[in-house]
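PROTEIN FOLDING TASK:
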Amino acid sequence: MRRVLAWVRRHPFRATVSVLATAFVLLNIAAYRHAAAMTTFVDGAATTDRPERLGVLDRMGVLLSGVEVRRPQNDSTPADFGLAFSTHDVTTSDDVTVELWHVPHDDARGVVVLGHGYSAAKSSVLTNAAALHEMGWASILFDFRGSGGSSGDHTTLGFHECHDVAAAMSFARGWADGRPVVLFGTSMGAAAALRAIAVADVRPDALIVEVPFDRLLNTVRARFELMGVPSWPSAELLVFWGGVQRDLDGFDHDPVRYAESVTCPTLLLHGSEDQRVSVEQIESIHDAFATSQKSLHVFEGLGHEPYAVRRGDEWGGVLRPFLDEVAKGIEGTVRTQQGAPGPRRQDNR
C-alpha cells in the first residue's frame, strides 16, 4: 500500500488518469448490464418495483446489478369482462409472431387497436376495451413482442415494436370493412404507435396516445432521477449500450419527431403529476402533430397510470365525443363517395 501511495505522489497525473479510466470502464460495465436487464424479459423473475417506491438499500442494489423484469403474462381475458373474443396470430415484417384478441361488436362503429405499456401485456388494457365496447366500438388488443402470447423475450421500448403495431393495424383493416380504425397506444405503446405512423406507413383514421415519452433518452434520465442519482452520463451510456444490444439507435427514438408525421385527428392524454414525463414534454409532442385536429387532456392529480381504471368517468367523457366525431367523419366520407352531396368547394382563383 505504501508503494502505491508513493507512486501516486510521484505520478499524480498518471494516477488521476488511471482512476478516471477505471471508473469509466466500470460505469460502462454497469450501463451494459442495466441496458440488458431493462430490455430482457425473464421467465419466473420477480419484477423490480418502480424506482420511486424502492428503499435506499434496494436502490443501491438496483444500481449495482440492474433491474429484473418478469416476462409479462396475461392475467385475464375479455371473457372476464363479459366480452366475446377470438384469438389470432399475425406475423410482422421482421418475422415476429404477435398474438391478438379480437373483441367484436354486433353493431360496431369501427375498431380501436390497443397497444399496452412497458412490462405489461394486452390484458392490461381490457378495461379500455370494455369501456369502448359500451361506446359501440370493437377492439383489437395485442401483445408486443416479448409479452404475453407473442414471440421473443426482448423489448425495444417501442422502436422495433412499430412493426407489431403495423401487423395489428393490418388485421384491423381487414376486419373493419370501411369503418374507421383508431390506433390507441399507452406509454411505450404510444411511442410505438407514433413510430409506426412515421416509419412503417401506418395510417389510422384517428389516433389516441396516452402518456407517451418525448424521447427515449429523457425517459431513461427520469428513471435515474427518480432513484435520486445523477442521470449523466449513466443515462447516455445505458441508451448507447441498449442500442448496441438491440440493434437500434436509441438516441434517435424520438416521438416528438414522429409526431410530425401525424395528420389524422389526434387525442393526447396525460397526468399532471406524472414524474416520468413532464407536461412540457407532452406539450412538445402535441405541438409537433401535423394535424390541426388535435387536443390535449390533462388528468389533474394523476401520474403515469391507467386513466381508464383510475378515473373512468372522466376518461370516457373525453374519449366519447372524440370517437363520435371520428365515426361521423368516416360516415360522411362514405356517403360522399357513394354519390350523396358532399361539402361545397369554393374556388378562390
About this structure: Residues 12-38 form the longest helix (27 residues). The chain has twelve helices and eight strands. The domain at 78-215+253-337 is CATH 3.40.50.1820 (Rossmann fold). The chain has two domains: 2-65, 78-215+253-337.
